[in-house]
Amino acid sequence: MSLKLLIQKCSNNDTKAQAELYQLFSGKLFSVCLKYCKNYAEAEDNLQDSFVTIFSKISQYKNIGSFEGWLKRITINTALQRYRNQGVFEIIDDSNIEDVEVTIEEDDISLEFLLHIIQELPDRYRLVFNLYVLDGYSHKEIADLLKITTGTSKSNLARARKILKDKIEDYKIRLNTHSL
Hints:
Order of helices and strands: HHHHHHHH
Shape: globular
CATH superfamily of the largest domain: RNA polymerase sigma factor, region 2, helix turn helix motif
Pfam families: Sigma70_r2, Sigma70_r4_2
CATH topology of the largest domain: Rna Polymerase Sigma Factor, Chain: A
Protein name: DNA-directed RNA polymerase sigma-70 factor
GO molecular function, one term: sigma factor activity
Helix content: over 70%
Family: Belongs to the sigma-70 factor family. ECF subfamily.
CATH architecture of the largest domain: Orthogonal Bundle
Radius of gyration: 19 Å
Largest sheet: none
CATH class of the largest domain: Mainly Alpha
GO cellular component, one term: DNA-directed RNA polymerase complex
Strand content: under 5%
């Protein structure tokens, strides 16, 4: 079945088509959820909430642009809405915060470890980090999405990078200590 026909059937509340769409995209969207959520269980909840929204709004998709991109935006917005409702973002005017670069030698650090330390970041830092670094949003776009200032977005990114850099350095020290 073509994607266009599948979308049309989903917009008519065809449960078999909805199950097929879920099968097609749930894996990719779950990985998006894992980036924005604190843990596996929260990511599962976010995925389910995202598909509820997707199925309720699928008739609004007009076959313009990437359908997968449309799904991803809904999934990210679902996660962000949860945090906006919890009030996790404090507005900061911290124009003198130092930006930190994080360099990773690929052989030293596993993807699982990186995902784990990103998930451990405080919500406001994790969300900004993921939006900026992993999904390529600008600070202005992040500010609009999260209802914060661009300065707060920049500050939260710098703090996230600093925390990640410290955790990676600690991990490398522990790794080197054990190998001696």
